[in-house]
C-alpha cells in the first residue's frame, strides 16, 4: 500500500504542461525550511493501492505528465513504480520525481529494493536536500545544491528550464484545506507555513 499525503489531478506548477502529482507521506530527512513539513512524519495518511492511485491520477485525459514528490518518494519506490507503470499502459506520460537522496546514493546503495524500478521509470530526477541558504527563488529545484538529472532524455530539449525558470505557485482547494502546489520562494513558503500553524 502507498501512504499518500495528497494528490492533484491538474497543475502547471510542477513541471512542463498539465500534470498530475502525488505527494507521499513520510520523509527520513528534516531539512530546515521544508515547504512540506507536515508531510515529514512517517504516520498513516491516505492508504491507496497502486491501482487506486493510478486511477485517481488518470482522471484528466489532457494530463501529459506525472510528478512524484513528498515526503520522500524513494521510501515508497515499489508502489510508485507500479503506479506509473499502470498509468503508462493507457497513454504516454513523462515522469518527474523529487528526492532528498543524491542520485549516486540511489544507484550505489539504494535505501530499499524498489528504488531501481522507480529510477527506471523516471525521466527527470531532482535530487538532494533542501538548503534554505541556497534557495535562489528560481527553478523547479528548491535550492541550488539540488540537481536536475535528465535520466531518459525525454524532457531535455523541450525548452523547459528546470533550473532557472520563474517559479509558479497554485493554491488549490483540498477539502477544507488549501494545497500549495509548486515550489514557492522562501518568503512565500514561510508565510504559508505560518498561516497554517495559526489554523
Ligand atoms: S527531503 Fe524534501 S520533503 Fe524531506 S525534509 Fe527535505 S525538503 Fe522536506
Explain what the structure shows.
This protein is of the alpha/beta class. The chain has a single domain (2-198), classed as TIM Barrel (Alpha-Beta Barrel), CATH 3.20.20. It has helices at 50-57, 77-87, 103-108, 115-121, 186-198, and strands at residues 2-11, 19-24, 46-48, 65-69, 94-99, 124-127, 147-150, 169-174, 177-182. It has a seven-stranded mixed sheet with strand order 3-1-2-4-5-6-7. The chain has a two-stranded antiparallel ribbon with strand order 8-9. Strand 4 (65-69), helix 2 and strand 5 (94-99) form a beta-alpha-beta unit. The chain is globular, with a radius of gyration of 15 Å. The mean pLDDT is 95. Iron/sulfur cluster binds at residues 27, 29-31, 34, 36, 40, 70-72, 100, 129-130.
Observed structural traits:
199 residues, alpha/beta, TIM Barrel, 7-stranded mixed β-sheet, two-stranded antiparallel ribbon, 5 helices, 9 strands, binds iron/sulfur cluster
Query: Treating each run of at least 4 consecutive H or I residues as one helix, how many helices?
Result: 5
Assigned CATH class: Alpha Beta
- Structural class per helix/strand content? alpha/beta
What proportion of the residues form beta strands (DSSP E)?
25-35%
Estimate nothing, just give the exact number of structural domains.
1
Q: Return the CATH architecture.
A: Alpha-Beta Barrel
CATH domain fold name:
TIM Barrel
Largest sheet: 7 strands, mixed
Radius of gyration: 15 Å
Small-molecule components bound: iron/sulfur cluster
Overall shape: it is: globular
Question: How much helical structure, as a percent, in the residues?
Answer: 10-25%
- Termini separation: 30 Å
- Cross-sheet strand order for the largest sheet: 3-1-2-4-5-6-7
Low-confidence stretches: none
